[in-house]
Specification:
This protein is an alpha+beta fold and 157 residues long. 38% of the residues lie in helices and 20% in strands. It contains 5 helices and 6 strands. The chain has helices at 3-14, 16-24, 34-53, 71-81, 90-96, and strands at residues 98-100, 110-115, 118-127, 130-133, 142-145, 151-155. Helix 3 (34-53) packs across helix 4. It is globular and about 35 Å long.
């Protein structure tokens, strides 16, 4: 049973009147497990917007912003601004993230490109099969369709 499925039973135990009173005065009901998932979604959404705001910034190998980026530099910068710490390289970021299925992916998750077990590129999932990323030398930060099935997904917690 997920934390969201427990909300009705928790509210019943707390009493409908008290839950409605709390809601009416602008309070919130704390449900274990839900707040951390909501916070992760918020930081992922912030990171996605930060990456998108860097549209057109030039690619530079080893750069971590704020004006130039490589792929993992963009993800590191975006999540740092959103309040989450990531390691430096795409492979290290993959090892640090919570691995999820393609079916479970959502906007703000990391998309890791791999050849065999070697992770060589990372971007931030924007939804509809697209990512924000810093592609390569001579290119700029941009939104692009995922071009291969050789990807893994990770969620920053």
């Amino acid at each position: 049973m997920t934390a969201l499925n427990r909300v009705p039973s928790l509210m019943a135990r707390a009493g409908t009147a008290s839950a409605l009173t709390i809601a009416a005065v602008g309070g919130s009901i704390v449900v274990p497990g839900v707040a951390s998932e909501a916070a992760a979604a918020t930081s992922a959404t912030k990171a996605l917007h930060i990456a998108a705001s860097k549209k057109g910034s030039p690619y530079k190998y080893g750069a971590v912003g704020p004006r130039r980026f490589d792929c993992s530099g963009l993800t590191l910068y975006s999540f740092k601004k959103a309040g989450k710490k990531l390691p430096r390289t795409a492979a290290q970021q993959y090892n640090k993230s919570r691995h999820i299925s393609a079916k479970s992916r959502r906007a703000g998750d990391l998309v890791f490109f791999h050849s065999g077990s070697n992770v060589y590129h990372v971007g931030i999932y924007a939804g509809k099969g697209k990512i924000w990323h810093a592609p390569k030398t001579g290119d700029v930060v941009r939104l692009q369709k995922i071009w291969t099935k050789s990807v893994w997904y990770g969620r920053v917690g």
